[in-house]
Design a protein that fits this description.
The strands form two sheets. This protein has a five-stranded parallel beta sheet with strand order 2-5-1-6-7, sandwiched between helices. The protein is of the alpha/beta class and 205 residues long. The chain has two domains: 129 residues, Rossmann fold (3-Layer(aba) Sandwich); 68 residues. It is built from eleven helices and seven strands. A hairpin with a 2-residue loop joins strand 3 and strand 4.
């Protein structure tokens, strides 16, 4: 739903999402370079789970032995919830409300801007797109995606396939998106797409 259709006033709130290896972080950086405020959901989770993070006590209580002085032991926590829907639901019940509060605070603090970006990796998977004015999906050809992901340290073909199985397929995301940003091209061409989108949506009021 567009802002005009919803009758909403204020900034145009654009969800930014994309499957693993599609270049979403690079695109988010391009929005920032153009002066558009970006809320990075993953970065917020890392802060909340890092050294002295707000969520450490609750996570340790629910999953003993998964935190320490450096924050959450991601390997230990991942092992505690992997393949266990009930454990994952407990973790999400701890994390999601706090992240939602941080996101709401971001939207209030940046309300004077005409365009705001919510960088949310699992936007379609978790249904958060329903609250937005529009969604931009970052996409690249499958061969490019695979090459990028397998170049990451600690990544294997098997792990890549497991991650893909948990995500809405890229083709479905593109079908549902209001905008598609192609990163299977040069950085300059991708940046031009971002600039055009900022120009278009920054005047959406």
């Amino acid at each position: 739903m567009t802002k005009a259709a919803s009758g909403k006033s204020g900034p145009f709130v654009l969800g930014l999402t994309g499957s693993i290896g599609m270049g979403k972080s690079t695109v988010a950086g391009m929005f920032r370079e153009l002066g558009v405020p970006v809320f990075d959901a993953d970065a917020e989770v890392h802060r909340l789970q890092g050294p002295g993070g707000e969520l450490l006590a609750a996570i340790e209580a629910a999953f003993p032995g998964t935190t320490g002085p450096a924050g959450v032991d991601r390997g230990a926590l991942g092992a505690a919830v992997f393949g266990d829907p009930h454990a994952l639901a407990r973790l999400e019940a701890i994390v999601h409300p706090v992240v939602a509060n941080r996101r709401a605070a971001f939207l209030r603090a940046e309300a004077a801007h005409p365009l705001l970006i919510l960088d949310i990796p699992l936007l379609y998977e978790k249904g958060g797109y329903r609250e937005l004015d529009g969604v931009a999906v970052v996409s690249a050809p499958p061969a490019v995606q695979r090459e990028r992901v397998l170049a990451r340290e600690g990544m294997s073909a098997e792990k890549f396939e497991r991650i893909l199985a948990l995500q809405v397929p890229d083709s479905k995301k593109r079908e549902r998106a209001d905008f598609v940003i192609d990163t299977g091209t040069s950085l300059e061409a991708t940046r031009a797409q971002v600039c055009a989108l900022v120009t278009k949506l920054g005047r959406a009021e």
